[in-house]
Each structure stands twice: as structure tokens, then as C-alpha cells.
């Protein structure tokens, strides 16, 4: 997966199988700014590991930022 321009890529694998699955969320939190959701999957996604690729655009923020994953 190739990112365009100066954007950053986040590549990861996830497994969300079963009736009890909730949500998996990836978000970006720039220093001094509000957190924003970049990617989300809800509920059962079937058996096996899935790959995901997210292009992260930090915008004009040249400072520190966090990429957060939460279940």
C-alpha cells in the first residue's frame, strides 16, 4: 500500500469474530487538538485475520500526535 505525498500509512491486522464483538476504532489525536476517528469496524467481521491500511493526514499540524486503537 502506497501513501500519497507526505502522508503517513498505518498498516495492521485485526480479528473480530463472534457474536460478542463490539467496535474497533483507530483515531488520530494531534497535540492541542480534538481527536478524530480515521477508521472503524463494528460487530462480527467473520473468521480469520483481516488486513487494514489507513492513510493518515496530519494536516498542518507539524507537532506531536497519537494514533490510538481502542476496542
Q: Return the structural class.
A: mainly beta
User: What is the CA–CA distance across the termini?
Assistant: 24 Å
Give the SSE string.
EEEEE
- Quaternary organisation: single chain
Assess the beta-strand content as a share of residues. over 45%
Shape: elongated
Question: How many E strands?
Answer: 5
Q: Main sheet, how many strands, which sense, barrel?
A: 3 strands, antiparallel
Report the radius of gyration as a whole number of Å: 14 Å
Please describe the structure with a list of short key phrases separated by commas or semicolons.
mainly beta; 71 residues
Summarize the structure.
By secondary structure, the protein is mainly β. The protein contains no helices and 5 strands.
Describe the structure.
This protein is an all-beta fold and 71 residues long. The chain is 0% helix and 49% strand. It is built from no helices and five strands. Strands 3-2-5 form a three-stranded antiparallel beta sheet, with no helix packed on it. Strand 2 and strand 3 form a beta hairpin. It is elongated, with a radius of gyration of 14 Å. 1% of the residues are buried.
What is the fold's blueprint, element by element?
Layout: E1 8-14, E2 23-30, E3 36-42, E4 50-56, E5 65-70
Antiparallel strand pairs: 1-4, 2-3, 2-5
Amino acid at each position: 500500500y502506497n501513501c500519497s505525498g507526505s502522508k503517513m500509512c498505518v498498516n495492521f491486522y485485526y480479528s473480530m469474530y463472534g457474536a460478542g464483538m463490539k467496535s474497533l476504532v483507530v483515531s488520530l489525536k494531534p497535540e492541542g487538538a480534538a481527536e478524530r476517528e480515521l477508521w472503524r469496524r463494528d460487530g462480527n467481521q467473520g473468521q480469520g485475520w483481516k488486513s487494514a491500511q489507513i492513510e493518515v493526514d496530519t494536516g498542518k499540524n507539524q507537532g506531536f500526535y497519537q494514533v490510538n486503537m481502542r476496542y
